[in-house]
Structure formats: C-alpha cells, structure tokens
C-alpha cells in the first residue's frame, strides 16, 4: 500500500505474528524482518528436531536480532516441538492431578530450557482455563483441572518455571475457555456465568499469572455477556482494557488467539477482526495456523494501515501496541543475554511427573490381576481429533506396552469401525481397553460396555479426563502424551 505515512507499514508489521510453511524461513519472512516485522510463530510443520529449529531461529535472528519467535508448546497433548513422537512431558491435567507446584515449576523450567536452546523466546502457554465443564471439546486435559484454586497455583508455578528457563510465558485463553461446549476454532462460544462466578472461577488463574509476572496473555474468541454483551473478548475494549489492564493490572503484551479462527473471522472478516482487536487493546495478532503465506500477512498489514489512515484505528493505539511488542522483544533479548535459560533437568522430569500422575481404581472384590505378565491385546478407541492437537501426534499405550510385553497386539477403532465385540481379537490373552474422554462419546461408552460384558476382566485405561470410571480395574493417566503412555505401560506391567 502506498501512503504518505511511510512509517505505518512498519508499525503494522511490528504487531503481526505470522506463521509460515517450511523448516527454513522463506524469503518473504526474512525480507519482512528488515521491514518492521517483529515476530513469527512456529507450528509443527516448521519442526524436525531441536537442532533444526535452532538453525531456523538463528537464520531469523541474523535478519533481526530481537525477533520474537513464538511457539504453541503446551508440553502435553498439544505439542509442536515433539509432534512427531508425542510429548516427553505430561500435560497440565496430569500436573494438576499430582498437585505438586514445585514439580509443575520444574517441568515448565525444563521445557523453557529446551525451547531457549532452540531459539524460541515466547511460548503460547500455559493454558490457564478452568475445565469446569467436563463436556468441553477443546480444553479438557489442556487445563490443570476443574478447581480454580488449584488451576491458579499451577498456572503461577508454570509461568515461573518457563520464564526461569528463559522463555516468555503467555497465559491463555482470557477470560477463560473452560465452561463451554463449543470450540472457538469452529464457532463463537458463549460463557453464561455472572460476574461473581467469573471472578471466583475463570479469572482466578489469570490473576495468579499476572501476579507471577507473566509476560503475555492470549485472548480467547469468547462471548461473555457478563463482561460485554456484544463483542467477543478479543474485540472488546471492556475486557482487554477495562478488565485485563485496569482491574487485573496486566502491563505486558496481549496476543490474540489465531485471528483466522471462525469464531471471529466468520463474523468480522479476517482483516476486520484484526483491526477491531487492535482497536480494543490487543498488541499482537497471531496468524498462520491456517493462513501461512505472505499474501495473508500483507492483507492484514495493509488493512491496519488503511484503518489508521481512515481514522478507524487511532495511530496512538497502534504505536502503543508496537511499543509493547518491542518491550517484550527486549525482555527476551535480556533473558538470552543473561543466560537465564538453565540446563535441562538432570533427571527425566517429564517421565517422573507422568508416573506420579497415574491413578489406579479397582472395584471392590475384583479378581483382575495386575501386573500383566504375558502379551496382551490392546484396543484403542479413537475419538474425533481435537483440532488443537496435531493430526500427526501419536498417542496410545500399544507401543510402549509391546516393548515391555513382546507379542502384544494393538488395534484402533474410530466410531464407524467398531465391531460388535471390540475385544474379540484378544482370545484368552489379557485385554486392555484404551479410551480418551469416554464420558463425552456415546459410541465409545457403548463399545466399552460391550467389551466388558464379554471380558469383565479387561483393564480400562483412560488417557483423557477420567470423568467416567468403568471396569473392574481402571487406570487414569490424565493425558495422552508419550510420557503418559509409557507411565501407563509401566504400571500395567509392574515395572515401576
């Protein structure tokens, strides 16, 4: 866009956090870094391993030494750095089940050290949502739990740990995505709680994050009528300015959830939502989960410039947003220069934490024997994927159980494929039924019921929220990470 306000394109670029495709930075990203772009965000498509990410970020830093490199690494079911193999750490729900804030801080600090080594400086985590609605389709095990006091203390611990590792934390999804049945990737969730309930529940972890010195907060695309009856939080000055800034006292960077998500893009447009978010008080616009090219970034940059020229977006507001992004960039440079990124934990803290999170429930008088001592048959029931979790990210216990009990077989069924007797392939071998959020899926509950009717000695392993405990022996991992699967296999075989 040609404009007499020649500084505006650079200001507009400074507030964008675009993604891109590839394991090396494309030419347009490198060019934009010289033209004002202040940040980029990495996804699984950009990651091979830590060494490759370090080379990628070094290339970015050669173009702009203070570039903010963000990633969406929750170190649980939602992982980008370890998307190919699954996370070597348990997620928030498992840490909440253990309820040892020192352990949570240690896990986050270990993650921070790994991210810092890879050159990442901002992490879109922790998830500070209170999962008060068990039917929530998008949060679940990404939350520390359903108790706001517990979630608050672990959110603070996670923030302290990650930032001690040298990486800026970003608490999400403000003002709280836990009490909803709608996924904001697809539509606009509505949070119906009154203000007293919001203060007591949803807002408690964000207050704790601010008190812990969190450097960034990510908005949720949520309609919360008690706070603003008309606009989603991302676009609401009442929520971003009046609540987050004035009441909670947050002075860091407000980052939007991906602005192409349908909750806002379908209603206000890709560019329209961006301009409205900045006007409402957001400082950085996350894009590129689905739109990851120069055309998308240019569309938003030009729309921001046009909005300033037309008077729709005050230039002072854009300059304020760019200044805050610059302050965060300075924090990350200082963290790197000070060498605050400590060494990785000496012990395998992720697996240690996952082991501590496993819970076994046995029905009174059960005759099911653990540990398993011979090859088993594992049936894994696969629900529709939570869009926040990468399709490429593996899960399950069949693999680690086979390593411990050679000869173990595994089958996996999605809803349309479940046979009348899902456990029939076991024969006389031990049968292990693996579920994820069984309480949310009628078909999965029915399949498990049929399998248990034929094999009441089967063990049920829940890798999601253990809202429903079934079977004579029920094992809950509180997450489906690689570490959690390994921990479950160890319990089943008595090797730990």
Automatic annotation (TrEMBL):
Residues 36-327 form the Glycoside hydrolase family 3 N-terminal domain. This is Glycoside hydrolase family 3 protein. Gene3D superfamilies: Glycoside hydrolase, family 3, N-terminal domain. The keyword Ribosomal protein does not apply. Belongs to the glycosyl hydrolase 3 family. Pfam families: Glyco_hydro_3. One of its GO terms (molecular function) is hydrolase activity. It comes from Micromonospora trifolii. InterPro entries: GH, Glyco_hydro_3_N, Glyco_hydro_3_N_sf, NagZ_Beta-hexosaminidase.
């Amino acid at each position: 866009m040609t404009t007499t306000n020649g500084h505006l394109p650079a200001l507009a670029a400074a507030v964008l956090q675009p993604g891109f495709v590839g394991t090396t930075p494309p030419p347009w990203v490198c060019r934009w870094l010289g033209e004002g772009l202040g940040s980029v965000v990495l996804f699984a498509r950009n990651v091979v391993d830590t060494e490759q990410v370090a080379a990628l970020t070094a290339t970015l830093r050669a173009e702009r030494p203070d570039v903010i490199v963000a990633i969406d690494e929750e170190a649980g079911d939602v992982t980008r750095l370890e998307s190919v193999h699954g996370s070597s750490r348990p997620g928030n729900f498992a840490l909440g089940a253990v309820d040892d804030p020192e352990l949570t801080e240690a896990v986050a600090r270990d993650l921070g050290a790994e991210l810092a080594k890879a050159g990442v400086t901002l992490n879109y985590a922790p998830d500070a949502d209170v999962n008060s609605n068990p039917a929530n389709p998008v949060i679940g095990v990404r939350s520390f739990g359903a108790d706001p006091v517990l979630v608050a203390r672990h959110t603070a611990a996670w923030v302290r740990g990650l930032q001690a590792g040298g990486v800026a934390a970003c608490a999400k999804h403000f003002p709280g995505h836990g009490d909803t049945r709608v996924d904001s990737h697809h539509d606009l969730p509505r949070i119906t709680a009154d203000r007293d309930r919001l203060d007591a529940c949803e807002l408690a972890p964000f207050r704790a994050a601010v008190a812990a010195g969190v450097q960034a907060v990510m908005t949720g695309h949520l309609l919360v009528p008690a706070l603003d009856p008309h606009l989603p939080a991302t676009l609401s000055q009442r929520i971003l300015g009046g609540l987050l800034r004035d009441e909670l006292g947050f002075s860091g960077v407000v980052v939007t959830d991906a602005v192409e998500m349908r909750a806002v893009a379908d209603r206000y447009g890709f560019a329209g939502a961006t301009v409205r978010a900045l006007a409402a008080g957001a400082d950085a616009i996350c894009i590129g989960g689905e739109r990851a090219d120069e055309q998308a970034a240019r569309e938003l940059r030009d729309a921001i410039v046009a909005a300033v020229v037309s008077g729709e977006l005050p230039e002072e507001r854009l300059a304020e947003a760019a200044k805050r992004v610059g302050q965060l960039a300075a924090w990350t440079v200082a963290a790197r220069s000070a060498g605050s990124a400590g060494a990785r934990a000496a012990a395998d803290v992720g697996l240690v934490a996952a082991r501590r999170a496993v819970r076994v429930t046995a029905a009174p008088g059960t005759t099911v024997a653990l540990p398993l001592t011979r090859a088993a048959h594992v049936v894994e029931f696969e629900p529709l994927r939570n869009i926040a979790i990468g399709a490429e990210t593996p899960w399950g216990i069949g693999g680690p159980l086979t390593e411990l009990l050679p000869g173990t077989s595994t089958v996996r069924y999605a809803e349309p494929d479940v046979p009348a007797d899902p456990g029939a392939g076991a024969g006389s071998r031990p049968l292990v039924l693996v579920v994820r959020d069984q309480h949310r899926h009628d078909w999965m509950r029915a399949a498990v019921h049929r399998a248990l009717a034929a094999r009441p000695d089967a063990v049920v392993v829940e890798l999601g929220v253990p809202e429903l405990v079934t079977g004579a022996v029920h094992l809950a991992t509180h997450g489906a990470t690689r570490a959690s699967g390994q921990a479950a296999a160890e319990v089943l075989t008595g090797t730990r």
